């Protein structure tokens, strides 16, 4: 069966990605879904839930509501909660059943915005895609909300000062960046620049509103790619894709400076292809979030001459990463001749006997299973644990 999984788990779903992307911004995320599912989107998929509150609600969709389409109850419940909690915005999103029933979320959002008097928007989802799709949609929807009335003209006329470059970090959530101290490490690596906002860990909604003043957007995971593309088109802000890991950090910082100087994005290009297409079997394989894995691959190449192949297991394509998988069998075929592997420990059963294995666990794949042993790749001492 193509695209089936019998050994490894699937990645975190799109609805969890949406909830994670908007978690710290003071808005209210409403998931149209049956009661009881909030524990999946939060306690299982969101590490901040234990230490930091967020307004994430489940609609409590009943069987009769699903069959008859009781939108009025949905609307009234949201308005009641908003009146009590005073959110900065309301984001609506869908699980599979309302999506299949054709619920008019755009229409509901318009009704809610008129009655609540605050921004309301729908983040497209259906519960069948992975987190990269959901979080990417959430970040782009938020950018569209914040910068709908902006234009390129002011940005193009503003004089550029490469010595005082300001940047935004796009795609920063604990689904990809959950190691202890990783946010502080990222800021330390980028201390040569002024960080205006982090989308969205460690920044408020007000910080994100200032993102339009940045010289460059740095996309640190594929979840930030859609927002970066929108801001480049709408605001004229170029973007760079990469994570400052080890020896690759200096290269990435140089790319940011060049993008600020030229006003043009500086990123690896490449046409994504599925592994079904003809390609040489790689000997050293990296599997995981593709922006982070690409940064690790570049570090290995610069530091030791190793030239690994990065495999993107997510649905969102990443510039410069050409190999994508669509299912367990697909990935198993790629790994059949691998001599070295870096990735989550739950991939180990797919590897042939004798393959050298270096564990780098991923929150969005194995969840809390290996959280105690999470590695911060941005710290050189931690990075040394990744060896083949």
Sheet/helix structural class: alpha/beta
Q: Let me know the number of strands.
A: 14
C-alpha geometry: globular
Strand content: 5-15%
What brief labels describe this structure?
single chain; 388 residues; alpha/beta; Rossmann fold; six-stranded parallel sheet; four-stranded parallel sheet; 16 helices; 38% helix
Walk me through the structure.
- The protein is of the alpha/beta class.
- It folds into three domains: 14-129, 3-Layer(aba) Sandwich (Rossmann fold); 153-262, Nitrogenase molybdenum iron protein domain (Rossmann fold, 3-Layer(aba) Sandwich), CATH 3.40.50.1980; 273-383, Rossmann fold.
- It is 38% helix and 14% strand.
- It has 16 helices and 14 strands.
- The protein has helices spanning 14-21, 38-44, 63-68, 71-85, 96-101, 105-116, 131-146, 152-157, 182-189, 205-209, 225-235, 248-262, 290-304, 328-335, 363-366, 380-383; strands at residues 28-32, 55-58, 90-94, 120-122, 166-170, 194-199, 216-219, 239-241, 273-274, 284-287, 309-312, 323-324, 340-343, 356-359.
- A six-stranded parallel β-sheet has the order 9-12-11-10-13-14. Strands 2-1-3-4 form a four-stranded parallel β-sheet, with helices on both faces. A four-stranded parallel β-sheet has the order 6-5-7-8, with helices on both faces.
- Strand 10 (284-287), helix 13 and strand 11 form a beta-alpha-beta unit.
- Helix 1 crosses helix 7 and helix 7 packs parallel to helix 11.
- It is globular, with a radius of gyration of 21 Å.
């Amino acid at each position: 069966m193509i695209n089936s999984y019998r050994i490894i788990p699937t990645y975190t779903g799109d609805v969890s990605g949406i909830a994670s992307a908007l978690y710290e911004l003071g808005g209210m995320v409403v998931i149209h879904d049956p009661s009881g599912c909030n524990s999946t989107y939060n306690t299982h998929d969101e590490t901040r839930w234990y230490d930091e509150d967020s307004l994430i609600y489940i609609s409590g969709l009943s069987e009769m509501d699903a069959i008859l389409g009781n939108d009025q109850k949905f609307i009234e419940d949201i308005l009641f909660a908003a009146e009590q909690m005073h959110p900065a915005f309301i984001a609506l999103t869908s699980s599979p059943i309302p999506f299949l029933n054709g619920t008019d979320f755009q229409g509901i959002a318009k009704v809610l915005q008129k009655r609540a008097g605050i921004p309301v928007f729908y983040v497209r989802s259906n519960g069948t895609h992975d987190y990269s799709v959901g979080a990417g949609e959430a970040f782009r929807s938020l950018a569209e909300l914040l910068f709908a009335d902006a234009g390129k003209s002011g940005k193009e006329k503003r004089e550029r000062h490469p010595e005082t470059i300001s940047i935004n970090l796009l795609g920063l959530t604990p689904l990809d960046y959950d190691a202890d101290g990783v946010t502080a490490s990222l800021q330390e690596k980028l201390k040569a620049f002024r960080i205006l906002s982090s989308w969205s860990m460690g920044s408020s909604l007000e910080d994100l509103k200032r993102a339009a003043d940045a010289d460059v957007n740095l996309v640190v995971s594929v979840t930030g790619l859609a927002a970066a593309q929108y801001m480049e088109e709408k605001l004229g802000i170029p973007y760079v894709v990469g994570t400052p890991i080890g020896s690759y950090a200096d290269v990435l910082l140089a790319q940011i400076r060049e993008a600020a100087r030229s006003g043009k994005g500086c990123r690896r290009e490449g046409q994504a292809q599925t592994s079904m297409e003809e390609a040489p079997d790689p000997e050293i394989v990296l599997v995981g979030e593709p922006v982070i894995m690409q940064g690790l691959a570049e570090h290995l190449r610069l530091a030791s001459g190793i030239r690994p192949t990065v495999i993107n297991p997510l649905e969102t394509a990443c510039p410069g990463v050409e190999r994508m998988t669509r299912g367990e069998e697909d990935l198993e075929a790629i790994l059949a001749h691998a001599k070295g592997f870096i990735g989550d420990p739950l991939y180990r059963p797919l590897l042939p006997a004798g393959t050298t294995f270096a564990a780098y666990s991923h929150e969005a794949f194995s969840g809390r299973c290996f959280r105690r042993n999470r590695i911060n790749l941005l710290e050189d001492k931690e990075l040394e644990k990744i060896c083949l």
